[in-house]
Design goal:
Mean pLDDT: 90
Distance between the termini: 23 Å
Shape: globular
Radius of gyration: 23 Å
CATH architecture: Alpha Horseshoe
Strand content: 5-15%
Number of domains: 1
Number of strands: 9
Largest sheet: 3 strands, antiparallel
Length: 510
């Protein structure tokens, strides 16, 4: 696997059938103490899981409601922000300390782990019984394939996110021995069952198997009224694009990216320079609703996430200095990067780029308590375009990468039109005519810079920091600096305490 040259820092630094299934082996404490609502449901759902319609409905719970956007607090996208509400979990994330919460608090590794394995349990329940259904027509057979596809894709995606948070990044030289996470593919039938950690390579192999079969069977026709909230074909292709990029199989990343982007890739990239987006800035809710709208072709899969990351008064964020420096790294001084605004004030010295609508579900009609959440864009066309760019660069196909970059910058930078060339990019990074800096190296820097700006506060930066072994510095209130080194063990989130104690999983080394 490739590694970023250390010099980059110089350029970029600026309903399960038994109640145990609901409890889950990893989240015993979480579900017994924090989710008593589960106990109000019929404890044996598989008794009534006897047709495709019920199976399809059950799969709405196969999408984890845990957000991974909290990982941005661990990245170079944030600095010490004064005047915000800081919980213990926020401080732990910012200092890369192992989590000490009990798992009931959203925006934590344990909450994500529990929620995601709970989602996997729902997918497994459907897959375990789907072949027992009475199929009497071709239409039923087609729907059965579509339901199976969704269950496979949700199971694969959930494990993919887990392994990339709680294990090392995939590396074909070591992943056959690196401990991953348990790949759970059957319903729970044993109380307090113990598990083993499959290797990263084994987990990736199982993910790939489920993902490819899911893509083969996917049928958008059965989700016409809620297609962006289900694993549709475009979302499945975007998943494959990310999967093969992370695995370092660039030919396959390009192949699946091409299948999505087709002859008009620009159709899958939202145009932030358009009147539609510029006019929406006058309304905080209006802009965030537009940004996450299922009507945008760029938004491929949307998920509801229980979270507080959408609140500008919580946790550290981009300070005004950091934010200014990041967006001043504009290779085109005569243009304006429209991703910089709109942004809200965060604390005393920070900003919060507007990407989420802050939503709240009341526990009852007249209640003042409930669940805060946001709608997360799980997959989007811009990511697929950037995935393909990166793959082109890795294969030294610079001209093709620049053609893709042109599509992105035309929809991000307002002002004079910029005909992009490698000479212009080299000049922007101060290496014009330098024979010791390759075009590939410069394009690698540029693609990663655009990824950082494109996905700020949305959680994807953390995976790039792991993939490219980047160092991170976080300043403290007293002016001191703490560091996350390029090969730091803390880049692998610690297995939750309940999974270690109950599931008997081996913790990650520290």
């Amino acid at each position: 696997m490739k590694r970023f040259n250390k010099n980059i820092a110089h350029f970029v630094k600026i309903y399960p059938h038994r109640i145990i299934n609901r409890i889950l082996w990893t989240g015993l404490i979480f579900f017994l103490t924090g989710c008593s609502d589960f106990l109000d449901e019929v404890p044996d759902n598989r008794v009534s899981l006897d047709n495709l319609e019920k199976a399809s409905q059950l799969l709405t719970n196969a999408y984890s409601d845990g957000s991974y956007a909290f990982t941005d607090w661990m990245t170079d996208n944030v600095a010490y922000t004064r005047g915000v509400n800081l919980r213990t979990s926020h401080i732990e994330a910012y200092t890369w300390a192992d989590e000490t919460t009990d798992g009931t608090e959203q925006d934590t590794p344990t909450f994500f782990w529990n929620s995601t394995y709970n989602a996997i349990a729902h997918a497994n329940e459907v897959l375990a019984v789907i072949d027992e259904f009475d199929i009497r027509s071709d239409e039923d057979e087609a729907k059965k394939s579509a339901v199976r596809s969704e269950a496979l894709l949700t199971r694969a995606y959930a494990h993919f996110m887990l392994v990339n948070l709680f294990a090392k990044h995939y590396d074909d030289q070591r992943s056959n021995t690196d401990p991953g996470i348990p790949y759970v593919d059957v319903p729970e039938t044993v109380f307090l069952k113990t598990y083993k950690r499959n290797t990263v390579q084994e987990v990736y192999g199982r993910i790939e198997e489920d993902m490819l079969l899911g893509i083969e069977l996917v049928d958008d026709g059965f989700f016409a009224n809620s297609g962006k909230y289900h694993f549709n074909r475009n979302a499945a292709l975007a998943f494959a694009s990310r999967f093969y990029l992370f695995k370092g199989e660039y030919d396959k990343c390009i192949e699946y990216s091409n299948m999505l982007l087709g002859a008009d890739p620009g159709a899958f990239v939202r145009d932030l320079t358009s009147d539609q987006f510029l006019n929406a800035r006058s309304s905080i809710d209006g802009y965030s609703q537009l940004y996450t709208s299922p009507d945008l072709p760029s938004n491929l899969l949307l998920m509801r996430k229980i979270s507080l990351v959408q609140r500008p008064d919580f946790a550290h964020g981009p300070t005004t200095v950091l934010y200014r420096d990041l967006f001043s790294a504009n290779p085109f001084p005569s243009t304006t990067d429209e991703r910089e605004n709109p942004a809200l004030v965060k604390g005393e010295n920070g900003v919060f780029p507007l990407r989420y609508q802050s939503l709240f579900q009341r526990s009852s009609l007249n209640s003042n308590v409930g669940t805060p959440y946001h709608i997360q864009i799980a997959f989007r066309g811009e990511e697929v375009l950037l995935n393909r760019m990166e793959s082109y660069v890795e294969q030294n196909r610079i001209n093709e990468a620049i053609q893709d970059m042109q599509i992105l910058i035309d929809r991000r930078y307002s002002g004079p039109s910029i005909p992009l060339t490698i000479e212009l990019i080299r000049e922007a990074f101060g290496v014009s005519g330098n024979p010791f800096v390759s075009d590939k190296f410069v394009m690698d820097i540029y693609v990663q810079l655009e990824r950082r700006k494109e996905f700020i506060v949305q959680g994807l930066r953390w995976f790039d920091i792991k993939r490219f072994e980047l160092e991170v510095e976080h300043n403290q209130v007293d002016g001191s600096i703490i560091n996350l080194e390029e090969n730091d063990r803390r880049k692998v989130l610690q297995i939750p305490a309940s999974a270690i104690e109950v599931g008997k999983l081996e913790p990650n080394p520290r």
